[in-house]
Amino acid sequence: xxxxxxxxxxxxxxxxxxxxxxxxxxxxxxxxxxxxxxxxxxxxxxxxxxxxxxxxxxxxxxxxxxxxxxxxxxxxxxxxxxxxxxxxxxxxxxxxxxxxxxxxxxxxxxxxxxxxxxxxxxxxxxxxxxxxxxxxxxxxxxxxxxxxxxxxxxxxxxxxxxxxxxxxxxxxxxxxxxxxxxxxxxxxxxxxxxxxxxxxxxxxxxxxxxxxxxxxxxxxxxxxxxxxxxxxxxxxxxxxxxxxxxxxxxxxxxxxxxxxxxxxxxxxxxxxxxxxxxxxxxxxxxxxxxxxxxxxxxxxxxxxxxxxxxx
Length: 311
Prior knowledge:
- By secondary structure, the protein is α/β, with parallel strands linked by helices.
- The chain contains 13 helices and eight strands.
- It has one domain (4-299): TIM Barrel.
- It is globular, with a radius of gyration of 19 Å.
- Keywords: Lyase, Schiff base.
């Protein structure tokens, strides 16, 4: 694969884009699953575990994306995001619906926590481009510093790669300096080859992050899928010199899950990705378990769920 000039060439028309995406190496399903299983068995020392827990906390996008969300619930979420516990730095971001962005901005009060908003007809991605643009503009005007957009999986699975590419590129233009995360909804993509193609499509179109899932479809984030996406951003960096991020979201609930993902980040992409700038966890319940396990590491005994606040 050549450099950025060649990558520009592959996006010049639908046929070139299709040739590039279908020319990517096929995924060895058995191999990726075996490697993921091997990484999941890695053990780490106690001192490293505390570092891993603190690193994972700093990478959390603390999320509430429910129809029953209220301003009160969002304010409580933001208070926890600002200070998960006395003496612990804030999480990376809160993630809410566009109509809750203004509430989140007010509740955070200038704290060093990003405000991520889902957009583009989340979670289905099924609407007109005009509606998707308006959705994104609304979130940014309200104070979103990051936008998590969803691709149109129906268009992707039908082979309309140019349509998906153009939508991502258009939303990226609307975002400007606001970071754009591109949700692939990998649980609906059916094959690992499609995950690889969708990852590259998101990167080619300008996504700052590629994200596994909305959290509304099962399976959501899995270690093999995250490994594939980490391979994509690693290879993207090798070709272009640019760093892009990965965000697994949905289904990551325990400290053990988080540490497995951090091991994968280091082994697959490299240590440069062990930062909230390049790796995030989209989660709602994960933070509580990280806090409990952190206390266990420090005190030498299990604190139990009553130790942390209930979401």
